[in-house]
Design a protein that fits this description.
With about 350 residues, the protein is α/β, with parallel strands linked by helices. It has a single domain, classed as TIM Barrel (Alpha-Beta Barrel). The protein is about 45% helix and about 15% strand. The strands form two sheets. An eight-stranded parallel β-barrel has the order 2-3-4-5-6-7-8-10, surrounded by eight helices. Strands 1-11 form a two-stranded antiparallel sheet. Helix 2 links the parallel strand 3 and strand 4. It is globular.
């Protein structure tokens, strides 16, 4: 028996009063520290046209992080496939695998990761905005990694023979069902779609078919986690994330605010309810509180792995949250078969 693996999803948040270079340097420092703490994998996201998120080019950032670390798995959480030609993604991640064999994950999503105007700028065609052809594009992408597959005259180099571990990501039932049918590992975005978690995981497991990748389903659940010495301190640290998400949903995204700005913001009753609702099912508090919350989530979802994402203003507090979870929460979590 061993503890359920814990991993990290980072968005390279750009905090108020800082810049993109600082955000990316902080993500690099976090990757190094979480590797030291024994976290299993470190993923970065793909978001566009968001002033508070510097993670817009996952393959570039993964290459940098892989060179700055030595053992932790690096990956995308995820590459939004409708924004890219499958051949380009295959070449990028084939290059990463050739440079860092055995350490690269390719997590794939079907959402744009941005607004419709920016999606149009990325895809350059109104016809390309539909995600209906996602299964076909996914099959094309996978084919580029496999010898003897795809178009004979179009070969991904690097790519063919340099396959990363491929994951499907989702926040609803579509990718859950597809991941099960294809026999791929599945990561669910519980951190922003908690209401759909149980249904998606049930569908994934019920639809699962053994494949060349997996004999049995493997589900990872991404969860917001802020751990501090006390519940009150964690609540204070979590304030900026709630305000940033509210502003995003209101169509006015910005840099990650300070805890003071979050505390002073004049929330309306509806806004306050929105922020509080988003915390349902997440992990926020002291090590004892977070251990209880993550244990409940594991028992409810039967997840094979948890991926933690921590959006707090101060990098020292962000790193400290992961330290507390590794040192004082992880030993209390349920065990799972090797």
């Amino acid at each position: 028996m061993t503890s359920v693996p814990l991993s990290v999803l980072d968005l390279a948040p750009v905090a108020e009063g800082t810049d993109n270079a600082t955000a990316l340097a902080q993500t690099t420092a976090l990757a190094r520290r979480t590797e030291e703490l024994g976290y299993h994998r470190f993923w970065v996201a793909e978001h566009h046209n968001m002033p508070g998120i510097a993670s817009s080019a996952p393959a570039v950032l993964i290459a940098h992080l892989a060179a700055a670390t030595s053992t932790i798995r690096l990956g995308s959480g995820g590459v939004m496939l409708p924004n890219h030609a499958p051949l380009v993604v295959a070449e990028q991640f084939g290059t990463l695998v050739a440079l860092h064999p055995g350490r690269i994950d390719l997590g794939i999503g079907r959402a744009p990761g941005t607004d419709q105007i920016t999606a149009l700028a990325l895809r350059r065609s109104v016809d390309a905005l539909s995600a209906e052809d996602f299964p076909q594009e996914l099959a094309r992408l996978i084919g580029y990694f496999e010898p003897g597959s795809g178009t004979p005259r179009v070969v991904a180099v690097p790519g063919r023979g340099d396959a990363p571990a491929i994951w499907l990501l989702g926040s609803s039932d579509f990718s859950a069902r597809l991941a099960g049918i294809l026999g791929l590992p599945f990561s669910f975005a519980h951190h922003f779609s908690a209401a759909n978690t149980d249904l998606a995981l049930d569908l994934y497991r019920s639809e699962f078919r053994p494949s060349r990748w997996l004999a049995e389903p493997y589900a990872m659940v991404a969860v917001n986690a802020v751990c501090a010495e006390t519940d009150e301190r964690a609540e204070w640290l979590a304030g900026p994330s709630g305000l940033a998400f509210l502003r995003l949903r209101q169509g006015r995204p910005g840099r990650l605010p300070t805890p003071e700005q979050a505390a002073e913001y004049p929330y309306s009753p509806v806004e306050r309810e929105f922020v509080l609702a988003r915390r349902e099912g997440q992990a926020l508090g002291s090590p004892q509180t977070v251990a209880a919350q993550l244990t409940a989530l594991l028992k409810r979802t039967m997840a094979d792995e948890l991926m933690l994402t921590t959006m707090v203003y101060d990098i020292e507090a962000r790193i400290r949250s992961y330290e507390l979870i590794a040192e004082r929460v992880r030993p209390k979590l349920p065990s799972s078969p090797v």
